[in-house]
Specification:
With about 190 residues, this protein is of the alpha/beta class. Helices cover about 30% and strands about 25% of the residues. The protein contains 6 helices and 7 strands, in the order ααβαβαββαβαββ. A 7-stranded mixed sheet has the order 3-2-1-4-5-7-6. Strand 2, helix 4 and strand 3 form a beta-alpha-beta unit. Helix 1 packs parallel to helix 4. It is globular. Bound molecules: S-adenosylmethionine.
Length: about 190
């Protein structure tokens, strides 16, 4: 079974309840100026729906079509317009089909591969924000979630030299299972 189908099955098994976003992640999204926003590894849309409700024009990307279908259903129920794209983010030149630039890119609860990180600045307008907030090794310790999908402390501080790192929060020091990076395009 493909990795996308593993996720598809998880989404097929979920209840019809709208996905909820932890308060900590909502607080990070609230820092972003309203604009054209790309939600990478969007899942069934917890962040995309939150952002669209706040007025962002959202493009939501995932490789699990069942997650995208759930997202579209929730968006339609709320009369929100969210564009969804089925893309494997681990592919070389994964973002090429988007052919667009954004005011914000968000990556929540997904560890971006180096190949994806390298493509992000090309998709950002001047002064655009990039928010990456995902599981740190404390999440691995607490839940057994595979460590290879978790951020080590400070792992991304030097990973995007073409962007300015505006803020880094080491969640482990603050009792959180998330580390947060906010970059700005130069
Ligand atoms: C833990 S969920 C997070 C979903 C969403 N960002 C959130 O915080 O609610 C991880 C998501 O990453 C997606 N994903 C995993 N590998 C991917 C890949 N190579 N390309 C695109 N999406 C991927 C999965 O389908 C899943 O929807």
């Amino acid at each position: 079974m493909s990795r996308a189908d593993l996720w598809n099955n998880r989404y097929l098994d979920k209840s019809s309840a709208i996905p909820s976003l932890p308060q900590e992640l909502q607080a990070s999204l609230a820092l972003l100026p309203v604009g054209r926003t790309l939600d990478l590894a969007c899942g069934d849309g917890a962040a995309s729906l939150y952002l669209a409700e706040k007025g962002h024009q959202v493009v939501a990307v995932d490789f699990a079509v069942e997650g995208l279908l759930r997202l579209q259903g929730f968006a339609a129920e709320r009369h929100l317009d969210i564009e969804t794209r089925e893309i494997d983010l681990s592919a070389t030149e994964a973002l090429e089909p988007l052919d667009d630039e954004f005011d914000n890119i968000v990556i929540l609860r997904y560890l971006p591969e180096p190949s994806l990180l390298q493509q992000l600045s090309e998709r950002m307008k001047p002064a655009a924000r990039l928010l990456i907030q995902t599981f740190n090794v404390e999440h691995h310790r607490q839940t057994g979630f595979p460590e290879r999908f978790c951020l080590q402390a400070d792992a991304l501080s030097q990973a995007l030299p073409e962007l300015s790192l505006q803020a880094y929060d080491n969640g482990q020091l603050q009792g959180s299972v998330f580390d947060r990076y906010l970059f700005v395009a130069k």
